[in-house]
Every structure is written in structure tokens, then in C-alpha cells.
Automatic annotation (TrEMBL):
Organism: Mesorhizobium caraganae
Domain N-acetyltransferase: 1-143
Protein name (database record): GNAT family N-acetyltransferase
Cited InterPro entries: Acyl_CoA_acyltransferase (IPR016181), GNAT_dom (IPR000182)
Length: 143
């Protein structure tokens, strides 16, 4: 890579160290701009009697929004209302924290119908190069 006049260079990243530092700096910037420091991890997990975690839903709350980052249940536990119960638990906690809306992104081959069934509406889509598939963005009012 050619050197820049100031001596900076650009290199591809292969670990998360700089990303973690940049995320913290960006969050500090967000606090400076909004005056609000309310980001918090949120999650609900499905465990068996031995304490083994089988799946769950994880994300964060921030600026009156619930961001759902990951939701997983193994195939054999789907269709038994565990997913609905996990989603309800995390939404109730988000409301308790003051969240007004929830946002999730999923792929067409993952769970868009699950989210639609639970009141989410699509507000954006980015087509994949895989025919018939896309990244889908959904939102829901929690009020």
C-alpha cells in the first residue's frame, strides 16, 4: 500500500482489537452528541435443568431502541413456542428500560416470517447475489 503524505497507511484488519477500540470511541462520540449514555447488553437464554444453554436471543438497548443482534434455537426446539417466549421476555425487559421500538436484520433464509408473525414490519431489503435471497430489515413498535 502506498504511504500517505502524513505517514499513515491503510491495512486490512484481521483481528478485532482495533474494532473494539473504534467502537468505544464511536460510542463516546455518540454520548457527546446526544448526552445519553444508556447502552446495555440484553439477552434471554433457553436452558435445560442442568444449566446447559440451548439457544437464546441477544442484543442491546440504546437510545430507546432494542437492537436484536442474534437469535438462535436448534432445529429440534423450533415450533414449540420457545422462540416466542424468548422474544417476549427480551421485549418486556426492553420496555422496562424505556425502549419504544425494536429493530432486527435477518436473512430471507433465516427467520423473517417469525418476526412478521410477532408484529415486525419490513422497512428495507438488500438483495444477495444468491437468487431469491436478501438481507431484510424489520422494525416493531413496543408501545
Amino acid at each position: 500500500m502506498p504511504s500517505r503524505p502524513e505517514g499513515f497507511t491503510i491495512a486490512l484488519a484481521h483481528n478485532g482489537d482495533a474494532r473494539t477500540q473504534a467502537a468505544a470511541a464511536l460510542y463516546r462520540h455518540n454520548i457527546e452528541q446526544t448526552g445519553i449514555d444508556d447502552r446495555a447488553v440484553i439477552g434471554a437464554e433457553l436452558t435445560d435443568p442442568s444449566g446447559k444453554i440451548w439457544g437464546g436471543i441477544w442484543g442491546r438497548t440504546e437510545l430507546e431502541l432494542l437492537f436484536l443482534d442474534m437469535f438462535f434455537l436448534p432445529e429440534q426446539l423450533r415450533g414449540r413456542s420457545y422462540g416466542s417466549q424468548l422474544l417476549m421476555a427480551i421485549e418486556e425487559e426492553a420496555v422496562r428500560r424505556g425502549c419504544k421500538r425494536a429493530i432486527v436484520e435477518t436473512s430471507s433464509f433465516q427467520a423473517p416470517q417469525f418476526y412478521r408473525h410477532h408484529g415486525f414490519e419490513e422497512f428495507g431489503k438488500v438483495e444477495f447475489e444468491i437468487p431469491g435471497h436478501a438481507r431484510i430489515f424489520l422494525r416493531k413498535s413496543l408501545q
